[in-house]
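so ive been stuck on this for like two days lol. basically i have the seq below and the ligand is pyridoxal-5'-phosphate, smiles is in there too. i just want the complex predicted, nothing fancy, no docking runs or whatever. if the output looks off dont worry ill sanity check it later, just need somthing to start from for the group meeting slides
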Amino acid sequence: MSDIEKLLREDLRGRTAYGAPQLDVPVALNTNENSYAVPPAVVDEIVAAVAGMASGLNRYPDREFTDLRGDLAAYLSRSGTSVSPEQVWAGNGSNEVLLHLLQAFGGQGRTALGFTPAYSMHPIISATTGTTWVDGLRGVEGGGAFDLSAESAVEQAQQHDPHVVFLCSPNNPTGTALTLDVVTAVHDAAPNAVIVVDEAYAEFARPGTPSALTLLEGRPRLVVTRTMSKAFAFAGGRLGYLAADPELVDALRLVRMPYHLSSPAQAIARATLKHADAMLGTVDVIKHQRDRIVDELTALGLDPVPSDANFVLFGGLRDSHVTWQALLDRGVLVRDVGIEHYLRVTAGTPEETTAFLEAVAALGPEHLEGQS
Ligand SMILES: Cc1ncc(COP(=O)(O)O)c(C=O)c1O
């Protein structure tokens, strides 16, 4: 053990950091970004917003990001569920928002339950806050291997009596959306828990997929997290947010660092939100490419999981890592999410999707499970 390892907290020794490869490749489809650049009119608005606030950088930003909260509340309210600014919290990406939740409601001696495979940062952020992670199970007998039924989720919630429950919908990496009965059932079965519904991919859901925002009224322990990183094409801007009861939101002020959202971060997020329609203008094209991936991979003999997100998990591979490398050798970077026989691909532009599908079609039969 090195000297530094000896100094490190025992519970962090031997752990590996989050590490999706950031490689310079022609077709990068591994982190569920939106492949489309920010439109020129929005770039102009961002530049003007930064120019307008730059001379004030000698002062700390508005610690309560009041105007941005108002804009995010207005954006969320567009979906039909009214959300007030007092119900909104934000951070540098929804990862930071999740961190605040765990700092406030998790911690030493407390447990967080999630249903894996799900977003890999849920257990990682839990660990960094000293929260004990409980790996719940997905899978429905006679149904999809990655589905989560209300019965199964309730049983697991009752068994573990957690302090925080993560429900990810649409779920990363499977793309599976939850029905709201699962959310309400888990909420009622875990009376001592804050229930976090991670809706990072909500804008990509197929019609008829309801948001847990509609459940907030009368449920002060329920939290819905969102991000501008995915549909909103703003991953580099680092702006994630949540909606919840005002009292829960207020509690997060106990754990955040003062001034955690810089003045430029607030200004560019606000400038971008003014152009919400333009920023979301690529969502339908991306959804179409997602559905195309499912159809064409099926035709190629693979086993894609139907998706409500901007990515597709596909199975039927003999050795995920070997196929991951073979696709990379053809210039296409996808994600090995650590599920045997599966890989995950982000739906990109039509050209990127074509490049990915052509690279898969060019793979030999030795890549397929059950073929020689
Ligand atoms: C389910 C889910 N939640 C949250 C995040 C975090 O995104 P960000 O911190 O960029 O908002 C991601 C990113 O991939 C995700 O897949």
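The chain has two domains: 19-38+281-367, 40-274. The pocket of pyridoxal-5'-phosphate is lined by residues 32, 93-95, 119, 168, 172, 198, 200, 227, 229, 235, 240 (CB under 6 Å).
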